[in-house]
Amino acid sequence: MRKIITGTLLTCALASAGGDIAPVEEQVVAPLVTEESSGWEHKLAIYGWLPTFDGTLTYSLPDGGEQESDGGVIDELDGVFMAAYEIRKDKWSFLTDVIYLGMSGGETVAEDIGQGRLATTVAQEFDAWVLSFYGGYNVIDTGSTRLDIIAGMRYFSLDVEASIDFPILDPIPLSPSFEVYDALIGVKGSFDINENWYVPYIFDIGGGDSDLTWQAQASIGYRFGWGDVLATYRYLHYEKDDLRLVEDFDLYGPKVGVVFHF
């Protein structure tokens, strides 16, 4: 009888404590999934630039010959506007770069005619637009270093108001203008020096309507809370042999800009 009572009490005790002695099931924790931002990143850059202009102009002279300028054709920069707008999503990016230049200048061209020399004065006013459009794909992104392969096109238009003043003839007005479209390929990227200082750069080269065009620019930038400040050196080159008046030109010089991110 005692054994029966003892067994009954033990069975009841085990039954009441069963929740505590039952095997502990392994808890499966699902991995935390973070959704990456799929929004577009926007960047607007506005620059101030005082470029140097070198170019070769060809003038028709009274004897039927031609005279090339010495390259120093710009005396004054009348107006300039430069800006760039970039959008980026994941590995893809799109960039638009705009340059407007209003310039004026003059020079004296001397030509041997017969037993003497004919000196002619040439005055010019230039209005130039350079529009570049790129699509890019990122191939390197380590967090501190980024490199994109870019491809696109550049549009260049130049309107020239020029007059040639001969000593014994009335001034001859010239108003040539032209537009060229060129395909481009290049690279664009940046690398960080530290958390504030970084170096962005871009290079492209191409051709099409022009014989050759290329540009290169490199900057040193500093990040602020509201945006970035850039100090940049830029060089833009064009060659076009079959155009009237203008054969080739180079725009180059330092520029300073501010960059806004949103």
Can you describe what's shown?
- By secondary structure, the chain is mainly β.
- It is built from two helices and 13 strands; from the N terminus they run ααβββββββββββββ.
- A ten-stranded antiparallel β-barrel has the order 1-4-5-6-7-9-10-11-12-13.
- Strand 12 and strand 13 (about 245-260) form a beta hairpin.
- It is elongated.
- The model is unreliable at about 10-35 (pLDDT under 50).
**Low-confidence parts lasting 5 or more residues at pLDDT below 50?**
8-35
Straight-line distance between termini: 86 Å
Outline the biggest β-sheet.
10 strands, antiparallel, barrel
Number of helices: 2
Average pLDDT works out at: 78
Rg over CA atoms: 35 Å
Helix share of residues?
under 10%
Q: Give the tally of β-strands.
A: 13
What series of H and E elements makes up the topology? Answer: HHEEEEEEEEEEEEE
Given the helix and strand composition, which structural class is it? mainly beta
Keywords for this structure?
262 residues; mainly beta; 2 helices; 7% helix; elongated
